[in-house]
Write a structure and sequence with these properties.
heterodimer; A: Rossmann fold; Arc Repressor Mutant, subunit A; 8 helices; 12 strands; about 40% helix; B: alpha+beta; Beta-Lactamase; 5-stranded mixed beta sheet; elongated
Amino acid sequence: MASVLLIDDEIQIRRFLRAGFELHGYTVLEAENATLGLKAATLEKPDLILLDLNLPDLEGSEVLERVRSWSNVPIIVLSIQADEREKVRLLKMGADDYVVKPFGISELLARSEAAMRRHFRSSNRDPVVRTGPLSIDLVLRVVTVSGKRIQLTRKEYTLLHALASHAGLVLTHEQLMEEIWGTRAGNIQYLRILVRKLRQKVEADATRPKLIISESGVGYRLDADNPNPSPTHGRISPGAACLA
Amino acid sequence: MSRFQDRRRLDGLTAPWRGRGPDDDRGRSDTALIDTLAGHALPVAITLVGVVLATLFLVVINTFVEVDFVPLVYMLPVVLAATRWGMLPGVVAAVAGAAAADFFFYPPLYSFWLSNPQDAVHLALFLLVGIVTSNLAARLKSEANVLRGREKEIAELHAFSKVLATCVTAPDLIVAVQDYLSHTLGYRAFLIASADKGGDGDFALPKDVRDHAATLTADADGSAIFQSEAGGIWLLRVITPEILGYGAIAVNLAERRDADLDTIARSVGILLDEAIATLKQLKLKESIEHATIAYRAEALRDALIGDASHELRTPLASIIGQCSVLAQLPAIKNDFRSHGLVESIQGEAGRLDDQIRLLLDATRIKASGVRPQRVWSDPLDIVDAAIRQKQRALSAHSVNCNLEKNTPLVFVDPVLVEHALGQLLDNAAKYSPRGSTIVVHSRGDRDCVELCVTDQGNGLTTVEKRQLGKHCYRSDRHPAGTDGSGLGLWIARVFMLANGGTLSAESRGPNLGATISLRLPTVSDDTPQCLEAANG
C-alpha cells in the first residue's frame, strides 16, 4: 500500500486530501509545518510527498531542496500561486509536478499516480508506455497508434521518448530542448514545430490534442490518463510499476 | 597579502611595483618619437609615390606640349596627403614636389640649380602655399575628428540615458552604469553603491577591493591603486555624495603585473572624470532613490495582493477539494440529488474563484501594468489550453474548433493570451443559450493570426460594440441574474495590447450572436526555416 506525506499548514486542505487519498487506498501521513514534514520524510520514507509552498516555518522550495539533497521520492508541489516562472523554477529544483489550488481530488490523484509510476518505472524498467491509442516501446523504439506502427524522425522520437519517460508529468521547454538538441538555450520555435509534427502523427486531431498537452509558459506533458480505446489499456493501482 | 599604496591624485600616479628615474623619462620620450615616426612611415611613403606619379604624368604631358602648370599638379599630392594623414605627409609632399619640379622641369634640367630667379620665386611660393595648405587641411581633419567623436559621444550618451530610463530597480541601474563605464573606459568597471557585499547586487567584485573602497570614502576626492589578493590591479575612485549617497568606482586595470599601469591609470583616470561628470548630469543619485522607492512600493503591493490571494482563495480551494472528495463517496455518487448538490457547490465555488482571480488581475494591471513574457507560441496550444481552462463554463454548450493546421506561430506571452481567450469563451458561454454551439476558429496570414470565438447569443448593438472591452462596462440588455463585473473583456483587451495584438468584435445585431477576435503578431518568414531545422 503506497504512503503519502501531506505537508500543508491548512488543516482543511489536509483533511480533504486525507479523505480523498484514503478513499483510494493510500496510507496518509500529515505534517503541519516544514520541520515536521522533513522529519516525517526522513523517518517514515513515504512513497509520495505533497508539499505546500506556503509553510509557516520554512519556504516550501527550501523543503524541496533539502529533501532532494538525499532522496528521489516523488514530490508534487501544491500552490495557490500560478506564476509560470515559479513553476519552471520548482521543476528545475526537482519537483516532479505542481498542482495549482484549487483543484479536484481526481486531478491530484492522477498526477500522483503519474509521479509514482515514473518513480517505480525507473527501478522496474518496464519498457512500454501506453496512453489512449498510443503505445511506445522505449527499448525496441517502436511506436504504434491503435496497433498500427508509425514512422518517426529521430528528433520526433527523442521528443516522444522524453515525454513518455515522464508520462503524466510536465517537462519544461528547456528540459525538452536539452533532450533533443543538447542545449537548454535552444530556439523554442523549433520545439513548437516539432511538437506539431509529432501531433500530426500520433493524435487523432492535431488541432485538438488529447495526448501531448501544452502547459502554457511551462512545457509539455504526455497525458497518462487518456480514455483508452485499446483493450490492453487500464488504469493502475497505486504503486504499480507501469502504465500497462 | 594585499598592498595598499598611498593615496594620490591620478595625475601624479606611479606604478608602485616599478622604479622610475630621469633615464626612464628620456627613454620614454625617445620611444614616443620613434612611435610617431613609425606611425607616419606608410603615409609618407604613399605621399612620395604620389609625387612620383605626378612627375611621370608631367613628363608624359611634356613630351607633347609645353607645360606651365607644374606647381598646380604637384599641389594635388600635397592636398591629398594633408587631408588624409595630416601635416607631416603634407609638408613632405610639398618639399618633394618642389624638388622634383626643380630637377625635371626648371632649367637647367636634371639639376637642383635654378638659372632664372623668377623660377626660384615660383618654387618658393609653391613651397609656402603647400605648407600652409597642409597646416589648414590637418586642422580641418582634426576638427572633423573631434566633431565625429562628439557626435558618437552624444549618441552613446543618448543610448545610455534611454537605458537608465528603462531601469526599474536600483540593481538594474547599477548594472547599466557599470556597463556604460566598462564600455567608456575599455576596462571592466564596478559601481560600488553599498558597503555590504552584494548590497548592490554585484558578487564579482573581490571583497578586499570593496573594503578598501570603503576606507577611501571618507575623502570626497579619494582615489588609489590597489592590488587585490584575488588578483588584478584596481583603480579606485570615490564618487562625490552629490552623485551617489555612498559610492565608489572600481576599475580592474589589468591582471598582469608587467602592464604599463601608470599610463593606463592616467588615461583611465581622464576618461573616468568625464564619465563621472556624465553620471552627475544624469542625476544618478535621484534615479537610484526613485528606483528603490518604486521597487519597495511594488514589493509591498505584491505582498498585499499575495496575502489577499492566499486568504481568499485558500478557503475556496478547501471547499472545492472537499466537494470533489464528497462527489466520489459511494453514498453521494449513487444519490442523484446529493451528487447534484455537491456539483453545484463545487461549480459556484469555482465561479467565485474565477471572480477573485479577475479582481486580482485587475488590481495588478491597475497597480503595475502588464509585463508580458513573449516567446514564440503555437496558437493551437493556446486555444486548447483555454478550452481546457474553461471546461466547466463550457459544459452546457457544444464547442466546435475549426483551426488551420498550419496556423503560423505567434510571438506572445502564451499565458496572457490563454487568459484573454478564456475570457472570450467565458463570455460566449455566459451570454448564449444553453445547448447552443460556440465556434472557435483561426485565420492566419503573413502579418497576423486571428483567434475568433463565435456564439449564437445576445449579439451586440453598435453602441455595445464600441464600448466592448472598456473598464467595468456592462450592457443594460444583460438578462437579470447574469453575473459579471465588466472586467473580463477589459482584462482580455489589456492583455492583448500588452502582446502587440488587438481585440475586436463583430455582430449582425442584437440576439444574432457575436464574433470576438484576438489578433496576434505572427512569425511568418521564419516558419519554413523552423520546419527545416525541426526535421534536421
